[in-house]
């Protein structure tokens, strides 16, 4: 059975042409070089913005340091902590009573 012209054309298009093939090693090296360059650029950007973020974090911690120290030494007295624990237990008990449900004990 003779092949149709469409099949011949398709076979020619799908055929591997050695003369048109480029040096695969050169192509792969070029692609990998661009990938490495983009990875270096990405690492540099992440390092730069990470450092800027860390500096802002340290500045904020320094500015809030005195206020946080005062919070833990002056306002969080043992009586206040006890009241907070009692309030938390009371809220949990009310939830269990109101919802008529058990709190999950698994972690």
N/C terminus separation: 74 Å
Largest sheet: none
Order of helices and strands: HHH
Mean pLDDT: 83
Taken together, the total number of domains comes to 1
Rg, please? 35 Å
Give the strand content.
under 5%
Oligomeric grouping of the chains: single chain
Report the helical percentage: over 70%
Number of helices: 3
Can you describe what's shown?
The protein is mainly α. It has one domain. The protein contains 3 helices and no strands. The longest helix has 52 residues. The N and C termini lie far apart (74 Å). The mean pLDDT is 83.
In short:
79% of the residues lie in helices and 0% in strands. It has helices spanning 5-14, 24-75, 78-99. The model has no long low-confidence stretch (mean pLDDT 83).
Write the layout of secondary structure elements.
Elements: H1 5-14, H2 24-75, H3 78-99
Feature tags:
107 residues, mainly alpha, 3 helices, elongated
């Amino acid at each position: 059975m003779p092949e149709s012209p469409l099949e011949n054309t398709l076979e020619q298009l799908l055929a591997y042409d050695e003369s048109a093939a480029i040096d695969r090693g050169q192509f792969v090296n070029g692609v990998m070089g661009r990938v490495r360059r983009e990875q270096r650029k990405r690492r540099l950007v992440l390092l730069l913005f990470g450092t800027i973020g860390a500096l802002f974090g340290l500045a904020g911690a320094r500015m809030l340091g005195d206020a946080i120290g005062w919070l833990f030494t002056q306002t969080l007295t043992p009586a206040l902590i006890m009241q907070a624990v009692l309030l938390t237990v009371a809220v949990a008990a009310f939830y269990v009573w109101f919802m008529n449900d058990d709190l999950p004990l698994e972690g």
